[in-house]
Amino acid sequence: MGGVAVAVLLAGALAACAGEEPLTTPDGSPISTVTTRVAEVNIVNADRDLTRTCLAPTAPDAGQTDVARIAVTDPGLLDPICALGIGPKVVAVTSDAGSIPTYLGPQLGSVPTIGTSPDPATAGEADPDVVLTTDRSAASAEAFADARVVTIPTDGDWQAQFQAVADALGRSESGTRLLEEFRTETRKTGRRMDAAHNQVSLVRFTGDSEMIAGTDSFAGQILSMVGVQRPEPQRSPRSSTVTDQNFTDADADLIYVSFVGDEGQAHGEDVLLSDRWLDMGAPTWKRVLSVDDDIWYRSSGLAAAWLVLNDLKGSLDGNS
């Protein structure tokens, strides 16, 4: 064997022995790697490109003066703005640092967060034309004394909230069009993937329990729009806790699992590798997939809905 070949083999062997060492570029910079599996389960869209979360920019309705600068008092209102494609117009969020959902990507992740009780001077620097608020965060809007304040209702579903934001920003027609485009795509996806003949389970792991997500959960609503069926024990609107007595209620043709934080992942890995879990049908058939809990459950809006739908498109017929 030639010297070069021996050197290559030796380098490979040394790299294998040093598995704990981070990968680096020739100049020593660390190389980030994407984790694609957890507890022997494939992660759906592990390499998701968050720069593409927000949709194309929309224009105001005919005759409407376009808003130039937007402040919001509730980070949950950022998703509709992202879906309307006007994230660059957001100049301030009255929330604490780190409260902007990561899935919204860099367009909104870089917006200044000025605290839940901003002082008038800081609010004045933002100088918004309109402030979007909710009944639960209305107090934060008081600092913006000269801006138009619009309260977005929170008692409806995510589609109603999206339309309310679109109305408030002079984009009623765009809001209606974008929602209908999404509904049309869910129906097409359902037919294309024969969703009516798939029973899908939704399981969330917390630090010390497993939850079966109800049909009223965000992911549950998207599955219903696509036409995906749920196992009979999972057809309640409310989520339920998995116990020793109903453990197999988590089974289905396909199980989507997610983890609530690091503690949820640690507990979930223990369960996913347990004999009791592996003896169920879907794990036996390697039909368990991991999804992003923040997007599937802890978000709510059209931008996140597209992410969940695209996850389904790429995984309903997938395997662990």
List keywords for this structure.
ABC_transptr_periplasmic_BD; Rossmann fold; transport; signal; 4-stranded parallel beta sheet; 320 residues; 2 domains; 12 helices; ABC transporter substrate-binding protein; globular; Bact_iron-sidero_bind; alpha/beta
Identify the quaternary structure here.
single chain
* Strand arrangement in the largest pleated sheet: 1-2-11-10-7-8-9
* Number of helices in the DSSP assignment: 12
Radius of gyration over all CA atoms, rounded: 23 Å
Give a description of the structure.
- This protein is α/β, with parallel strands linked by helices and 320 residues long.
- It has 2 domains: 70-170, Nitrogenase molybdenum iron protein domain (Rossmann fold, 3-Layer(aba) Sandwich), CATH 3.40.50; 182-313, Nitrogenase molybdenum iron protein domain (Rossmann fold, 3-Layer(aba) Sandwich), CATH 3.40.50.
- 34% of the residues lie in helices and 12% in strands.
- It is built from 12 helices and 11 strands.
- The chain has helices at residues 3-17, 78-83, 106-109, 120-126, 158-168, 172-192, 218-226, 261-272, 275-278, 281-284, 293-296, 302-313; strands spanning 37-38, 41-43, 70-72, 90-93, 130-133, 148-151, 200-205, 210-212, 240-241, 254-259, 288-290.
- The strands form 2 sheets. It has a 7-stranded mixed β-sheet.
- Helix 5 (158-168) packs antiparallel against helix 6 (172-192), helix 6 (172-192) runs parallel beside helix 12 and helix 7 (218-226) crosses helix 12 (302-313).
- The longest helix has 21 residues, at 172-192.
- The model is unreliable at 1-20 (pLDDT under 50).
